[in-house]
Amino acid sequence: MDVKRSHPALHLSRTPLIYVVAQIRFSAIMSMEKFLPDIQERLRHKYPWFNRAKIQEFAFQVEGSPSINLSDRFDFQQRDKRTGVVLSSNAVAFHTNKYATFEAFQEELTAVLGIINEIAGIGLVERIGLRYVDLIRLDAGETWPDYLQAGLLGLSPAAVGVQGWTSAFQSVGQTEVGMLALRCIQSQNPLPPDLMPVNLQYEAELLRPKEVGTILDFDHYSQITRDFDLEKIVAAIGDLHDNIDRAFRSAVTEQALKKWE
């Protein structure tokens, strides 16, 4: 499938990208567990690790405090545990920290969605989302302006007279195909709080103890209700990817891109 691209693909051998996830939320299949053996049988050769867990979901009430419901989450992971599928009664996510190209990511996502739909029969799709997380770390003698455009940096610590200054920035806007959120967070945690813990393994530590890194979190999603059509769903995710690519290029400096080549 052709991928929509406003710019030629970036190939960064020292990429700051540490996590990518695509999620499709659909009308609940309450009998999902009934389909689980067949889904696992189709996935297990490429995703041999399997785990079942309980996740908490908050249900907000018209009156009173929200209630907490427990639901099942099924995790399938590849042998090295760096790529996986997360399935629940109303959503499926494909995530990885071993990202090569969007085309390869899209191909594997298409295969996973095809298997789940063939067995469980996904009805209405309520939300499609694509999220990229980059982690930027400083080498000796470097500063954040070496990597980030001025609009993401906040106030100068020297001008304010502080040390250990950290910042958080968020911008949200509508695109032709959905809503795009950009979050820029300086933190001692390598991933956004809502993604931790990610049940994937990393080859090396992402941050040293007490090291502050900058997280660039690009979240592009569409909440149009539509029938499940595999080709159209995958194409829609491709459209979400193009805006994220453009946002990443706008957020970082040319100096950063050259260093990551």
Question: How would you characterize this protein structure?
Answer:
With 261 residues, the protein is an alpha+beta fold. It has one domain. Helix content is 25%, strand content 32%. Strands 1, 2, 3, 4, 5, 6, 7, 8, 9 and 10 form a ten-stranded antiparallel sheet that branches. The protein is globular, with a radius of gyration of 20 Å. The two termini are 27 Å apart. The mean pLDDT is 92.
Topology (SSEs and partners):
Elements: E1 17-26, H1 32-43, E2 49-59, E3 67-77, E4 83-87, E5 91-96, H2 102-120, E6 124-136, H3 157-160, E7 168-174, E8 179-187, E9 213-222, E10 226-227, H4 230-251, H5 254-260
Essential attributes:
261 residues, ten-stranded antiparallel beta sheet, 10 strands, globular, 32% strand, alpha+beta
